């Protein structure tokens, strides 16, 4: 697999379909297109052509568009073929392209070439990957913010400010005896650096909320055996996801359901009933339930009677809503946040609305452009730490070095510095043809 290979792939959806879009990229792309379809006078114009094999037999009739380098998605000569989406047409074209000394693209290889040719940076590529997988309105918005380059501009602006700060500090070090480089220059620099650290720290605060949009708001359903946890999961999903019986300890593994609530992805996890047990399998289910609780953004603590629910050991940092179940047959003598019945549907719509409002409140409380990946957060945290060292340092040369290291960490986010080991991981998330 060489970087100068001409590659091709089906970039549209699964077959059969009304349309099949093929993408070809590389030095031989336009020549191959002309061999298939005849002369193509103008780039970026759609031509209706008959697509033929080398022996002259017809494969199909469709649109052909050429994108000469560097004005293409990949930055290379590229071609799109828009044909009928039958398996027979696709197979015939694949055979012809394979015979033309090209190869099938790997997952994400078109986007990887766009990165290598300066058409995308790493943040934009990650945003594009998220956009392709977006399932909810808020996921789409977050991915677009990232893929459009707004987030990259923020990171690059911060790195540029750090570079300018270093330049002024190093000028003071090198020309301290010159009248036009006064000692007060560095003091003005540190005021700006302190402001910059506050901006980076504010972005870090927003990271978890953006992760929630990207990966889902995690809601753990917890309670004693037979309080209605699995019944609630089934009612939310409007299908039988979990087995429901009168036997305590039926749920052994973690089941979950994904819902789109108000444009947000919300994941509900059904956990094993927490109780003392000697059953090895049930014990493992309870251990896994505890892990889900620790990672949750919200816990729904279910109970169906007047028994106290404080016996459960719950993470202190995670909000807990007390939910009374089986409200159609059992009175709610103990005060709950909400009462529901999975049999009659009472309270279910209200519960979903309250959860959607809770997620939206977290989203609205933070800045517009937010980092959506743990990788960003880790590098932002590292950059903030280096800036903190610079602010607290005593030797000017060491403080300038800390600023340089902070700028490098910001550069790693966008791919400007030393990220080769990340590329295969990131682009493996893409589908073939993108």
UniProtKB/TrEMBL annotation:
Single GO term (MF): GTPase activity
Organism annotation: Endobacterium cereale
Subunit-structure text: Homodimer. Heterotetramer of two MnmE and two MnmG subunits.
Family to which this protein belongs: Belongs to the TRAFAC class TrmE-Era-EngA-EngB-Septin-like GTPase superfamily. TrmE GTPase family.
Any one of the GO BP annotations: tRNA wobble uridine modification
Job of this protein: Exhibits a very high intrinsic GTPase hydrolysis rate. Involved in the addition of a carboxymethylaminomethyl (cmnm) group at the wobble position (U34) of certain tRNAs, forming tRNA-cmnm(5)s(2)U34.
Keyword Transferase part of the UniProt annotation: no
Designated name of the protein: tRNA modification GTPase MnmE
Cofactor(s) the protein requires to work: K(+)
EC number(s) per entry: 3.6.-.-
């Amino acid at each position: 697999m060489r970087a100068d290979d001409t590659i091709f792939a089906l970039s549209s959806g699964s077959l059969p379909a009304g349309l099949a879009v093929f993408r070809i990229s590389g030095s031989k792309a336009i020549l191959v297109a002309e061999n298939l379809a005849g002369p193509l006078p103008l780039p970026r114009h759609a031509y209706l052509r008959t697509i033929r094999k080398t022996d002259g037999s017809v494969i199909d009739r469709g649109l052909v568009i050429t994108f000469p380098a560097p004005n293409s998605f990949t930055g290379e000569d590229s071609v799109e073929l828009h044909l009928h989406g039958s398996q027979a047409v696709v197979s015939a074209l694949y055979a012809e392209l394979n015979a033309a000394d090209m190869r099938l693209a790997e997952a994400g290889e078109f986007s990887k070439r766009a990165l290598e040719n300066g058409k995308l940076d790493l943040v934009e590529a990650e945003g594009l990957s998220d956009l392709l997988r977006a399932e909810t309105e808020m996921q789409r918005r977050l991915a677009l913010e990232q893929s459009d380059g707004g987030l990259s501009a923020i990171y690059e602006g911060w790195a540029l400010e750090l570079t300018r700060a270093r330049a002024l500090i190093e000028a003071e070090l090198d020309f301290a005896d010159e009248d036009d480089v006064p000692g007060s220059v560095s003091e003005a620099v540190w005021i700006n650096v302190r402001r910059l650290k506050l901006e980076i720290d504010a972005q870090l605060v927003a990271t978890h909320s953006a992760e929630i949009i990207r990966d889902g708001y995690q809601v753990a359903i917890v309670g004693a055996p037979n309080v209605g946890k699995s019944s609630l999961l089934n009612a939310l999903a409007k299908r039988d996801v979990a087995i429901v019986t009168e036997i305590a300890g039926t749920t052994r593994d973690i089941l979950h359901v994904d819902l789109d609530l108000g444009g947000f992805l919300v994941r509900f996890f059904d956990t094993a009933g927490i109780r003392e047990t000697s059953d090895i399998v049930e014990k493992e289910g309870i251990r896994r339930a505890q892990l889900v609780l620790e990672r949750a953004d919200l816990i729904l603590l279910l109970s169906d009677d007047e028994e106290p629910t404080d016996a459960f050991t719950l993470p202190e940092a995670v909000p807990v809503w007390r939910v009374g179940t089986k409200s159609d047959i059992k009175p709610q003598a103990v005060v709950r946040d909400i009462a529901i019945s999975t049999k009659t549907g009472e309270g279910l719509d209200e519960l979903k609305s309250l959860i959607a409002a809770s997620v939206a409140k977290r989203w609205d409380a933070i800045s517009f452009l937010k980092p959506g990946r743990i990788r960003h957060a880790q590098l932002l945290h590292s950059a903030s730490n280096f800036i903190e060292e610079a602010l607290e340092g005593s030797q000017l040369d060491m403080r300038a070095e800390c600023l340089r290291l902070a700028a490098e960490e910001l550069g790693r986010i966008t791919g400007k510095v030393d990220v080769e080991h990340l590329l295969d991981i990131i682009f493996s998330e893409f589908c073939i043809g993108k």
